[in-house]
Each structure stands twice: as structure tokens, then as C-alpha cells.
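Researcher: Structure for this, please.
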Amino acid sequence: MKKKLLSLLTSIIVVAFVLTSCGTKQTSNNSGTTSSSDKEGDEIKIGAVIPITGDISTFGKSTKNGIELAVEQVNSAGGINGKKIKLIVQDDENKPEQGVAVLQRLINNDKVVGVIGSVSSKVSIPMAAVATQNKIPLISGASTNPKFTSEKGNEYAFRACFIDPFQGTVIAKFATENLKAKTAAVLYDVGNDYTVGLAEYFKAAFEKSGGKVTAYESYNNGETDFSAQLTNIKKNPPDVIVLTDYYQNVGLIAKQARQLGLKSVFLGGDGWDSPDLVKIGGTAVEGGYFCNHYSKDDTSPEVVKFINDYKAKYNEVPDALAALGYDAANMMFEAIKKAGSTDGEKIAEALKKIDLKAVTGEIKLDENRNPIKPAVMLKIENGKQVFVGKVNP
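Model: Predicted structure, C-alpha cell format:
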């Protein structure tokens, strides 16, 4: 009996020990903190949160290519401070809740010291608060909405792109000065921070310069029939129609506008930059102009080298999303090198002082951690993007 009792007590102690150990491990993994011991070793773990699938997957693919090229180059050169970069990529599907979930996984489980992402502002904005709470620097290549970096509690958010107030002003200035437009219509997705912000900033700048907005129409995400909004626009046909959405909706809207007989010039922002724009829009997008971060026709040494390296690796010409992903990754690497540490606070401080000759221009950050650099205007001609000019801040 005593033997049976002793055996039973021993079993209870063993089970309790195992359960306690498991519980301790899970608490540690979900603590939301990254200890210095987790960062030690021969690798520096960097996360990437990008839309590999979903409605802007071509943006995700280009961004991923740009980041991976930067990682390959820095590792080939010996890494940073004697350590190689290990990149861990997560798919956010261009959904805010998915972006936050995979970011938390990268921080808590993979113990990354910095994250690149995401692409769209609607995903990056909620991610910024999570990154700041965990003191992990987050750099978006292409999220242009000011809220990403300007909102209180987003102090660890940085970006490689210019912001929408500047982009909206550039488009309005181009419409009035280059196209001599007097009237404009605006069409945007009411559920997307990027398209709403760009529409508002264009409207304010265009009206300030003396232009008149004859129609300010919106739609909901997922809509594919824009005939009602375009019919309203057609009542007073404007000189230009500003489409602030991404390439897939811009292509659909342009086709439907031409089918209704609208002959206005289309204008837009960096969301147009995808080979799929012409595939979807066809001849309807011919003659349209959009604001972007770089042009493949730029002859600066940084652009020429990047294009040659990218073509050698992927056998295609990079778009702006690839350039911005490449620049965002190099911003992170440069900051880690300058900080001489993988501590999040030290990397963030180094990022604030960064001065980097990048593909999309020399990157210095303002007080809200936004780059001060020029934009370019591109035109769709014969299905190709043609460089029109560069606009400085």
C-alpha cells in the first residue's frame, strides 16, 4: 500500500512539474516582450508583413522581391556587425486584423528585432500601435496615409515613402499647371484610409489653386459596378477625373467611364503602379497620369544599379513597390548598423537620424518620421509608363 501511495505521489509530482514547465513556456512566448537572450546568436531576425495574397497581391510580390534582394546583398557583404540577416515573411492578405495577428506572432514567437510592412495604410496603421507597445521598429515601404506615423502611440512607426498630403498636392499642381484643368471629379473607396486621404488632400489643394470639384463620389470596397457614380460625374463632364484607388479598381472604373462616353483625363496616385493596371483597364487608361516614387528612366547611380541587380535576380524591371521595399529594408539595416545593437529603442533612435542615399531619393526623416524627398509624374503611353517629370517638396 505504501509503495502504491509513493508511486502515486511520484506520478503527481512529475505531472505537476511537466504542467508547470509547459505553462511557464507559453507565458513566456505570449508575454509580448523580447529578451536580450532571444536576440543573441549569429542571426538578426527581421520580419516582413506584406500582402502575398488578396486584392493587391502584385504589390506584395514586388515588395517581397525588393526586401529579399536587399537581404541577399547585405548578407553577401558579410551581414551587419558580424551577423547575417534572417528574414521571416508573413502574409497579411491586405486585411488589418490579419496584419496585426501576424505582427504579434513575429514579435512574440519569432523574436524579431524589426519589421518591414505593411503595404496599404489600412493594414499598417493598426500595426503601428502594436509595434510601439513592444518597442519594435516598424518601417512601411508604401503606406502613405499620415496617420501611420502621426498618431500618438505610433512612435515606433517609420516609412520609406512620401505621404498623401504631398502626393495630393503634387497631383493637383500637375492638373492645374501642366494640364490647365479648371474642373475635376473625384472617385474614391470610402472604406480605405489611403483612397479617402488622397481624395481629401487632392480636393483641398485643387480648390486652393482655383479649381472647381464638380463631383465628389464614393463607393464601398468590393463594388464592381460604378455606373451610378460615373453617371453623376457625366452630368458636368470635368477636365480631369481623379481615381485615388489601387490599380484593379482604377482599371475597372476607367473602362466603365469610357463606355459611358466620358473623355476626361484620368489622374491618380502611386496605387496605380502595377502591370495589371493596363491588363485590366486596356486602352481606357491610355493617356492617364499618376504620381509615383521613382521612375525606371531615372539615370541616378542608385536607380541604375538597383534596376540592374533586380533584373539579374528576377528577370524583370522593378516597379515602385519593389524599390520601396528595397529602401525600407536598407533603412532598417543601416539603423541597426549605426545603433551597433539589436535593441528596439536604439534602432528607433538611429532611424530618426538616418541619412541614406536610396533608390527613391535621399532619405532624411522629419519630426513625424516621414521622408522628405521628391515625387515623379508618369504617363501611360502605349501600355507603358513614361517619365514626365520630378516634383520636389
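Researcher: Any notable elements?
Model: Residues 1-39 have pLDDT under 50 and may be disordered. The longest helix spans residues 2-29.
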